[in-house]
Amino acid sequence: MNVKMEALLQRGIPRERITYYYQPIYDVGRGRITKAELLLRVSDGKGGFFPTEKLVSIAERMGKIDEMDKAAFYHACTVQREFARRGVELLEVNLSPAACQNLRLVSEVERILAETGADPQGLCIEITELYKIVKEDRFCASVRRLHELGLHIAVDDFGTGYSSLQRLLKFPFQILKLDKSLIWAMDGQNLAASMVDHVIQFSTETQHMVVAEGVETPEQARQLSEMGCTYLQGYYFGRPMSQEDFLALCENWDERPAERLMAAAGTR
Ligand code: G
Ligand code: MN
């Protein structure tokens, strides 16, 4: 399968093979969906999708990640205003740290924003902690410039990979996304729950927003809202879905089963 993915990346992925999915992010304070993460899906030509993580890591190795990231960002910019009209204040897009080390990135982002007329305040760049950053000065300068353009910056997969507190001091960010593995470890593990709790307290004190990822059960949702976590993302609130399904979910959110909403709001 890798050979096929590599061949596809080599030729350039045809547009018709790419679908952008959206995963809802639940706003605990407001009791509804106010953000979404845009996720790329590439058709395998057999009715399914290629595993995205694998595709992304092959694209990085082949030096093709910049193109994919840029296309995703462009797409986000084309839908941002429509999403904002429907109450989705922030659309989060993943940008590989490899792409952030490319000198042309910032000017290209600037050009895309101008061309599409998207509001940068309604967009967020997620940068994963999973990879080592080689050209750190260049990376930090790019992230700083992206934030100066008005974009939000999120630290993705926090708590895994190369995340360190020292690294958090090097570039501006407004959102911390707690990795799924930490959320899942809270189940029966007091140490994990305590770590998550402390990261949430620290983020609240320093006025950063926290998104807990991988929320799959009402217990996790309840526990995290009781800890003061402001945003929740995971299959419990919705899997990544088409734009149409996502906007319908936002619109009909109040009609969801009451126990789900109560669980998410932290009330028993
Ligand atoms: O690391 P990042 O935030 O980019 O991860 C997003 C990936 O995590 C997506 O591919 C999405 O399908 C997956 N994901 C999102 N929520 C959940 C969840 O609740 N459970 C599991 N198993 N995977 C999830
Ligand atoms: Mn992400």
Q: Which ligands appear in the coordinates?
A: guanosine-5'-monophosphate, manganese (II) ion
Structural class: alpha/beta
Number of helices: 12
N- to C-terminal separation?
47 Å
Radius of gyration: 18 Å
Which regions have little confidence, pLDDT < 50, spanning 5+ residues? 263-268
Order of helices and strands: HEEHHEHHEHEHEHHEHEHH
Strand order of the largest sheet: 1-2-3-4-5-6-7-8
Describe it.
- This protein is of the alpha/beta class.
- The protein is 46% helix and 19% strand.
- The chain is built from 12 helices and 8 strands.
- It has helices spanning 2-11, 52-62, 65-85, 97-100, 105-116, 136-148, 165-168, 180-185, 190-205, 218-227, 243-251, 258-265, and strands at residues 18-27, 32-42, 90-94, 123-128, 152-158, 175-178, 209-212, 231-233.
- It has an 8-stranded mixed beta barrel with strand order 1-2-3-4-5-6-7-8, surrounded by 5 helices.
- The longest helix is centred in the first third of the chain and has 21 residues, at 65-85.
- It is globular, with a radius of gyration of 18 Å.
- The termini are far apart.
- The model is unreliable at 263-268 (pLDDT under 50).
